[in-house]
Amino acid sequence: MKIGICPGSFDPVTLGHMDIITRGAALFDKLVVLVLVNPKKQPTFSANERCEMLKAAIAEQGCTNVQVDVYEGLLADYAREIGAAAIIKGLRAVSDYEYEFQMALTNKVLCPQVETIFLNTNAAYMYLSSSVVKQVASFGGDISRFVPKSVLPAITRRLLVTGNHKKEEEK
Ligand code: PNS
What we know:
alpha/beta; five-stranded parallel β-sheet; binds 4'-phosphopantetheine; about 170 residues
């Protein structure tokens, strides 16, 4: 069975992520969408919330060979543990490439049997990121064209109520 991993922070999931997930799922028997926990970062949504939102968005898409998992550690270790064939990453712009290239080379050293495959973003989502979603939502803007329908109420409610942008500014 060919297993792929689509790793990320997904804080929160966007339509750009879902585009990469659905296209990635078509390339493998099973795709694991992996929420990676970075203890040095303060995410807006907990790992559990990010997983639940991903599960809802994946169900909305009707992807049956995709599962969601969470991991605190090295992606290469997780890939080795589950016997993954490849890591799938989306590239939005050339500026993404330098960082992603470094990660791919590092992961290749740590786990040589796992390939990294880059998928070009769908042009419709080139501008989109979780940070853009958070900024627009925290000022009360419409994010319905940025995130899956199933997670829109949860994201809107949380970011508007907590006034997340204010917290960021105060830091
Ligand atoms: O969605 P993001 O924040 O761009 O995802 C980055 C992520 C989580 C995929 C990346 O930071 C990662 O792989 N973290 C796990 C730690 C690791 O394995 N690092 C690679 C060796 S430097």
